[in-house]
What we know:
- By secondary structure, this protein is mostly helical.
- 87% of the residues lie in helices and 0% in strands.
Amino acid sequence: MPEWFTAVLPVLTLILGAVGVFVQNAFTESRQDRRDALARRHEREAAATERREEFELRHLVEVHQLLRAAEEELTKLLDVMSDFWHQLHEQRTSGGGGPDDRHIREADSTMDAALAAIDAQAGFILDDGIRRLARRARSAVRFTSKTLQRANDDPDPDAASEAVREAQEAISVRVRAIYEGRASSSPR
């Protein structure tokens, strides 16, 4: 072999080795960067899912509580109206004046506030079917509360209670599904 070849060969080998290490490191870093980017994307998706679930849970639980409060207010209004009609009947038969309707106005005002709260929160329910059930329950309670106040109408509070229970059951099922999804996705 020529002398120049033996002098250049180690330098050439050194340069090729350095280039090889550089290329290998570049590929390794590229793969690591892709894995890191994928991990960050999964973390962002998990965080977005968690925020969505927290939002949904908060509003589902709130609407569930508001429906229960509206049903309780309907029961109170039913009691107030029953007392009112009883007092009205007694006062008409005894020849006295009409009963005080202040309690009816207060109960009606409280009922309207409870229904307005349901109206305000039901729009935040993400599931269309549950949102429809919550609005139907609110409408049934509203219809029954207004029917209670008319002398010639026969209210059906059981229909309103059934609509509320149906909406609450759908909400409960969704809340359980969210928590079951969280339990299955959490590391053990």
